[in-house]
Each structure stands twice: as C-alpha cells, then as structure tokens.
Amino acid sequence: MSKLWQKNSKVATSVEQFTIGNDQAMDLYLAAYDVLGSIAHTTMLSEVGLLTKAEQVQLKKALVEIYILVQSGNFKLADGVEDIHSQVEMLLTEKLGDIGKKIHSARSRNDQVLVDLKLFLRAELIALSKAVQSLFALLQEKSEQYKDDLLPGYTHLQLAMPSSFGLWLGAYAESLVDDMTMLQAAYKIVNKNPLGSAAGYGSSFPINRTRTTELLGFESLNYNVVYAQMGRGKAERVTAMALANFADSLARLSMDACLFMNQNFGFIKFPEELTTGSSIMPHKKNPDVFELIRSYCNRIKALPNEIMMMTTNLPSGYHRDLQLLKEHLFPAFQQLKNCIEMTSLMIQNMEVKKGLLEDPKYQFLFSVEEVNKLVNAGMPFRDAYKKIGLDIEAGQFTYSTQVAHTHEGSIGNLCTTQIATAMANVVKAMEFTKVEQQIEHLLNS
After folding, report:
1. pTM flag (> 0.85)
2. In order along the chain (445 residues), what is the average pLDDT of each group of 10 residues?
3. Which domains does the chain have, with CATH numbers?
4. Which of 108, 119, 276, 393 has the most C-beta neighbours closer than 10 Å?
C-alpha cells in the first residue's frame, strides 16, 4: 500500500519494517485523539475558506463515525497502512473521495502527531488524577480510623520514636498532594496546542491556530512553531516525571507494607485471598501484590531518564528517534493505574495490630518522651538527655506509653482537613471539567 509521502519509488521492505517498528500498535493509543484533532482542523479550514461548509459537514460526520468505531474497540489499522494518520485519511477518502484528500491541507504529520500526543497525554493525566484522588481519600479515611493506634517509628531502620498507623497512612496521603502538584505542572505543559506548526516552520495558508486551540479545549498555544516541534520529547519527559513521582510514593508504601507484614514486625495483616502461598511451605502468606507494585513502580521511575537519554543531543526539528518514546510511556499509564487500584484494594482490607507498643521491646521508643517530661519540669534539655541516657545504660529506664503530641501534623493532630483542602486546590486549578465539556461540544455541535 502506498504511503502519504510516497511518489514513484518504493522503500525497501526491510527499511519499511524497521522504521515502522511497533508504531502501528502504539498509534492505536492515539486513534481517538487523531480524529478529534482532525475535526478541529477541518472546522477551522472551513472557517478560513480552505474547505466549503458542505465539505466540512461531510468530513465531520465521517470523522465522528470513525471516533465511535474507535471508542467501540473495533478500530484497527489495515495491513500495510503506515500510521493512524494514514488510516484516517484513507477511510475518509474511501468514503468521500476527493473531499477526504483535502483534510491534510495546512498541516504535517509532525504537528498532527504532536496534537495527538498532547490530547492523549492530557486525557491520561486527567484519568490518573481521578484514580489518585480515590486512593488519597481512602488513605485519609484509614488515617483517621487508625489515628490512635501506635506504631514504631524508625530512623536508619532502628527504633526511633512513637508513630501511629494514622500518621503513617496520612503521610502517604500528603505525599500524593505533592505528586499531584507535579502532575499539575505536566498538565500545564501538555495543555498547549501545537497544531498549525506543520513540519515545524508554520504554513503559508491563512490558518487560525487560536481557533483550533479553542475547539480542542487547550489552555493556550505553543506559539513559536519551531518550539512546538521542540516540545516533542519534553512533553513526554515531564509527563513521565509526574508518573514517576506517584510511582515513588507507591513503591515506598509497598516496601513499608512488605516489612510490616513480616512476622518479625507483625504490624499489619491481610485476608488470605489477598496474599499468595508457597509450593512447599504451608505457612506462607506472601506480599506478592506489594512486591509487584514496588517493581512496576520502580520501572516507571526509570522512564524520565530513559526519555532524557533517548533525546540527548537532538537538535531542533523533528527526528525519527522521537517515535520510540511511545513504547514505554504509553503502557505506563495503565500500569500505574493498575498499581493504584491494587494499592487501594490492599489498604481497604488491611488489619492493623492493636497495642503494639505495649511490648517491652519497644520501650526505648519513649526515651524522648521521658526527656521532654524532664524539660517540661524545668530541667535543661541537655541535662535531661544525659540523665535518660544514663538511666538506659544502667537498666533503670522507666516510661509511659501515653503520648500527647498536639502540634500540627503530629500524632494527635493529623491535619487531615488541611491536607484534603490542599489536594482539592491543586485539582481545582487544572479545570478538568472545562476540557471535558469542550471535547463533548466538539463532537456533538
């Protein structure tokens, strides 16, 4: 089958296969967004006189039909078709004849794939945000539920000071707020329109880039057409960094859970159906879910560096290297959402051990509490520290397991409401509803 760019000569089959690589499979991720971009582009073309209104109406009707086919899961690239852009144009030409051939006026596959990527990344960031908000709410709920259940705190994996299950879970909830702030930064970079930059140097056609920006619900333009092309790779990298931050939080939580499930700790346990066994050891209840979350997330953490290395030393303009960025980034969204879903399942069904710190082996967790009592009674801190240290060395240390921390963010004052407000403010600033409504309007107006 001929290519959009092909003239009279044919490319060697080996070259064709190598250059296309896995791109057809990756392009299925972009199918719906290629159609959306084409609807906006042809709408604008009719408004500036490069298509008639009648042609635009026919094209939009056919494009919406393709969009519905994509959403049904029954869309695929035909054998020999190079990419999603070629497939859509081919379907339109088969249906509408010469009208279908007009769709590519004033754009290049370079800016076409750019807008597809931006729309795809934007939609995935919105979906990821919603998944994270659900996990965040669960962590806050469980944090409040277990706020009075004490837990050993560690530094250097050595006993340090009293913590609580509420403090532990609440820490990961607040971590997600910072992670969401990084997502917001990626979203702001992604939510800019590159369409109309063509091959990276603009077009002599009198196109209206502000109009396609409005139609696609972008916040603004990538104004400079050279930078619009240079943004390829950067958008993927900053998005990967946003994913990596969430992945880091989940990986660390998973490592905690693996330790806390260990019989030498025995802090938490899960229903048998959420753990796995051993082929020869009948007592085993393995934390396979958390181990796999940890590994998936550690792999996602490598993505920003992978993208950075693949784009190292590229000059301005388009380069085929950029094609390969899709292969690990695109599947990572679903992998991360799967990890979020499984983390939620495990936390929802987690049972914590009550009265942990009544065990004398945790007595030295309370050394600072005893120092502070002496300070409150008027003793200088350094003298109080020395006295308790000497008592410990002499085997004369006495303590109480009652703690009374009241400052912001401590065991007795988790600031759950304030953390929830911080998350709500970050999410609100991204105005997801506005984007979703605009896409709905584009399809149905």
Report:
1. yes
2. 55 73 82 97 97 97 97 90 90 96 94 96 98 98 98 96 97 98 98 96 96 98 95 95 98 98 95 86 88 98 95 89 91 98 98 96 96 96 97 95 94 97 97 96 94
3. 13-104 (1.10.275.10), 109-139+165-356 (1.20.200.10)
4. 119
